Amino acid sequence: MKPTVMIVEDEEALLTLLQYNLDKEGYKVVTVADGEEAVLMIKETPPDLVLLDWMLPSMSGIEVCRQLRARNETRNLPIIMITARGEEGDRIRGLDTGADDYLTKPFSMTELLARVRAVMRRIRPALSEDLVTFGDIVVDRAAHRVRRGEREVRLGPTEYRLLDHLIQHPGRVFSREQLLDAVWGSDVYVEARTVDVHVGRLRRALNDKGEKDPIRTVRSAGYSLDDQFLS
């Protein structure tokens, strides 16, 4: 089955160009020019990836992204934001809102297609496959089991959910607040310090007998699974 890409863009010429190139690349393409309509369509039939313009009629791309990340059903939906706003502060805001990638207009179609392929490889398989690996760490999502090398890693339910979330987004830094929303849920009140406690438990379970720590602490930012762990 072809992966489905939704393009949310109100600039007709760019929308047509994106649709043509993605269709040629083998994707099923759905187009929409309005932010509110995009949210409604995604609730009914989520695509595999969303190309999302920042400046949209009725609802900005940032707000679309925020609403999608707030729902369990679309929390992990891959989103690439495309926008003419190229300042560093805008890029950080887009990524902090939950975009998986951020591409500034004007961009080459070759680069955009490469970004789409990269996000698909990194995220879509991790969401659909039963076995997800990161180095010598294997998460069996069907059996809710974790192995590191030849040994089984025994995790509590919260530590398991924490690792499962991080391993779906290798290299991406999540703030404590983002991890609280993803692992505990946005409707549950838990202090941010609780994240540190469970990350500590996860580390102790994963790193037996001096094994290399895959979890990176980013000062004043949060945690990620460290890409350098794989090298």
Give a verbal description of the structure.
The chain is α/β, with parallel strands linked by helices and about 230 residues long. It folds into two domains: about 5-130, 3-Layer(aba) Sandwich (Rossmann fold), CATH 3.40.50; about 130-230, Winged helix-like DNA-binding domain superfamily/Winged helix DNA-binding domain (Arc Repressor Mutant, subunit A, Orthogonal Bundle), CATH 1.10.10.10. The protein is about 40% helix and about 20% strand. The protein has eight helices and eleven strands. The strands form three sheets. A five-stranded parallel beta sheet has the order 2-1-3-4-5, with helices on both faces. The chain has a four-stranded antiparallel beta sheet with strand order 6-7-8-9, with helices on one face. Strands 10-11 form a two-stranded antiparallel ribbon. A hairpin with a 2-residue loop joins strand 8 (about 145-150) and strand 9 (about 150-155). It starts with a strand and ends in a 6-residue tail after the last strand. The mean pLDDT is about 85.
What is the secondary structure topology, with strand pairs?
Elements: E1 4-8, H1 12-24, E2 28-32, H2 35-44, E3 49-53, H3 61-70, E4 79-83, H4 88-97, E5 101-104, H5 109-128, E6 131-134, E7 137-140, E8 145-148, E9 151-153, H6 157-168, H7 176-184, H8 193-206, E10 215-218, E11 222-225
Parallel strand pairs: 1-2, 1-3, 3-4, 4-5
Antiparallel strand pairs: 6-7, 7-8, 8-9, 10-11
Helix pairs in contact: 2-3, 6-7, 6-8
